[in-house]
Amino acid sequence: MNSARTIPARWRHRVAVAVGMLVVAWAAGCGTSREEQAVPTPPGPAPISAVTITIDKQTYSATPPITPGAVITVINHDALKHSITSRKPGLFDNEIGPGQTITFTAPDEIGSHPYYCRYFALMDGWLSVRH
User: Fold this and answer.
1) Residue 27 placed within a domain
2) Is residue 104 part of a domain?
3) Domain that holds residue 112
4) Which residue in 3, 61, 71, 85 has the most C-beta neighbors within 10 A?
């Protein structure tokens, strides 16, 4: 016997509406307010306010996370000219001659900032700027 035929149509409609309302109420209760949501701290070491990047054999050294406005020192151990150029135009673009050292300030913008060398396509790295 088909149970759908034994329940009057008006009751099937009322049950469907009630179930729908329960689902909506349940879904609304599952969220949290913006004040309750905590921004998770990214894994890894705490950011630092100064870092040194070395260039050796056409490779940038890795860097730990840094704070906004951190002092970045770049040392070029190669016998070739390099650059440290942000992939985001205008963020930073510095040339480093052979054996030279330069210093510049990290962006204030929080996030990952990829960079590259304008002279050697396979040279790249990134700065992780966070609080």
Assistant:
1) no
2) yes
3) 48-129
4) 85
